[in-house]
From TrEMBL:
<feature type="domain" description="Non-reducing end beta-L-arabinofuranosidase-like GH127 catalytic">
    <location>
        <begin position="11"/>
        <end position="423"/>
    </location>
</feature>
<feature type="domain" description="Non-reducing end beta-L-arabinofuranosidase-like GH127 middle">
    <location>
        <begin position="433"/>
        <end position="510"/>
    </location>
</feature>
<keyword id="KW-0378">Hydrolase</keyword>
<dbReference type="InterPro" id="IPR012341">
    <property type="entry name" value="6hp_glycosidase-like_sf"/>
</dbReference>
<dbReference type="InterPro" id="IPR012878">
    <property type="entry name" value="Beta-AFase-like_GH127_cat"/>
</dbReference>
<dbReference type="GO" id="GO:0016787">
    <property type="term" value="F:hydrolase activity"/>
</dbReference>
<protein>
    <submittedName>
        <fullName>Glycoside hydrolase family 127 protein</fullName>
    </submittedName>
</protein>
<dbReference type="InterPro" id="IPR008928">
    <property type="entry name" value="6-hairpin_glycosidase_sf"/>
</dbReference>
<dbReference type="InterPro" id="IPR049046">
    <property type="entry name" value="Beta-AFase-like_GH127_middle"/>
</dbReference>
<feature type="domain" description="Non-reducing end beta-L-arabinofuranosidase-like GH127 C-terminal">
    <location>
        <begin position="528"/>
        <end position="639"/>
    </location>
</feature>
<dbReference type="InterPro" id="IPR049049">
    <property type="entry name" value="Beta-AFase-like_GH127_C"/>
</dbReference>
<dbReference type="Pfam" id="PF07944">
    <property type="entry name" value="Beta-AFase-like_GH127_cat"/>
</dbReference>
<dbReference type="InterPro" id="IPR049174">
    <property type="entry name" value="Beta-AFase-like"/>
</dbReference>
<dbReference type="Pfam" id="PF20737">
    <property type="entry name" value="Glyco_hydro127C"/>
</dbReference>
<dbReference type="Pfam" id="PF20736">
    <property type="entry name" value="Glyco_hydro127M"/>
</dbReference>
Amino acid sequence: MKLESIDLKKIRIEDQFWSKHVNLVKNTIIPYQWDAMNDRIKDAEPSRCLENFKIAAGLSKGEFYGAVFQDTDIAKWLEAVGFVLAANKDEELEKTADEVIDLIGKAQQEDGYLNTYFTIKEPKRRWKDLCEGHELYTAGHMMEAAVAYYLGTGKTKFLDIMKKNADLICETFGQEEGKVKGYPGHQEVEIGLIKLYHVTGERKYLDMAKYFIDIRGVGENYFLKEMKSDDYHLIFPEFANYDPSYSQSHMPVREQESAEGHAVRAVYMYTAMAELAYEYQDEELMKACKNLWNNIVEKRMYITGGIGSSGILERFTVDYDLPNDYCYCESCASIGLAMFALRMANITKEAQYIDVLERALYNTVLAGVALDGKSFFYVNPLEVRPETCKDRTSKEHVKPIRQKWFGVACCPPNIARTLASLGQYIYGKSENTLYINLFISNQAKIELGEDEIEVRIDSDFPAKNHFKIAFSKIAKEIKVGIRIPGYGEEYTGLINGKSVAYTVEKGYAVFMVGEDTEIEISFKAPAKYVGTNPKVSTNNGKVALVRGPQVYCLEEVDNGDGLAGIYVDTKTLPKEIQSEKLGGSIFLELQGKRIDEEDWPKNQLYAAREITYKDVTIKAVPYSYWNNRGIGEMTVWMNNQI
């Protein structure tokens, strides 16, 4: 039996590290993004997302504005609202959301169709551009939002709207005569359909998701066939010479062994594949999931949990190609990786998946939003020189400062929904077993079998690698697995103050727990230098600095410019400094040398002379918080002083 996450209504996060981010969603990010989608942010790119719905509903007049998937901005915003309302009653916010849902209902067509782009702009082309039309992608995000809002509020209106839409999709697609035999160009609807199945019990939604996975890449490529149609026209001209691997449709999914193409599409698809592999007990599909996972984490993932090496087409490239300064590492891609990781962890009960999930959450996902919640990164590079981030160059996609909003704004609301649902990642449960994945302070009521137990975690992680877990309301003994992180050293466990032996199962320390039990966990996770597989030529001769799940970086504000000229002394251990800056982060002080630029002949680009160095003290900060103190250079990978 796979593990399940706990009901978000049953958990309260009160954590030294995470609360500042989780509370930011309700207090700042959701109101800010509401203003953005109502075009009230000064000097920000317009959204007109809600205006599109008003036009589609006949309440306003005008032309469609924005990307073909503009509807998903409000979908992810509503999903975040649903998660927030599950934990915090807010009548005003709920009233606003209900009004948006009313608007969505009015924009829905009589047969259940829901997509403002095609309703307003191309009503005769429904389902005729599956390659880049994003109709199914948009529907998937709407389904996810409807499920989250239903679970958070108990209200069914949005759920009913999306059931009607899902029914239309089930009637439209399939192998039967007269049905469209295509599949989504951008995967996501599969996730939405699976979630809809879980709350409604309607098996046809699960079967529809399976159909989209099963048919993908089988036989003649559907998108190439679609493009041969006389009435086909490209929405995105850059796809004139379409490569099916971009959308992972180049071969049947069960035969795919390497992560190819657009990174977000890939991990969204893998997330659905993992769920379907479990639901249908499809060993071949699960094997494909494991192969694809291994390819990502062993050969195509950045140390920050970022994925997607190329800014062109936002895609994976080849094994070990991990450039730092012009990579893409879209925030949405790391969120998708975390989703995939959670499914794999729940199915296999293996801690290795949570290690990667945690890496993505503590680094790339958090880096995507400023500490004030009012600006965002879409792209997450590991090295930045602001003056080189110029339009019409290989780095035009890299921004040296977070943006107020984006014309294509999929990442900001995606970050919001992820932080709002953080509780789903902390625990996994089965009938009589509880797994603790993340070391986040919280109070939770968790149903195990017929009983509801109470759990409290008190933690100051990642500042300190010591936390307590108190259990109560336990009628009969339960099994508890607590993750042993891959970076953890000298891991120990006490029960009610006494040292106990524990077994290790798939990376979890396993304890038997009864009423009024307190488990105390300690381990060491000192800051350390790490290298890269030599096949990653970009990082040869360089080291990165990690402390627990956090990756560190150097910033110009602390170390001056010319960060590429710094050589760190890896034989001297980093010194930890508790700071009040950057949300009370631990800074790291390093020793090393840097090239003495003043000793270089002026006005000479090249010279035959010995390079001289000077001793320096270097300061490193968590990567997740870079660029919160102004524009400047940044680097994760540092030269190793030999």
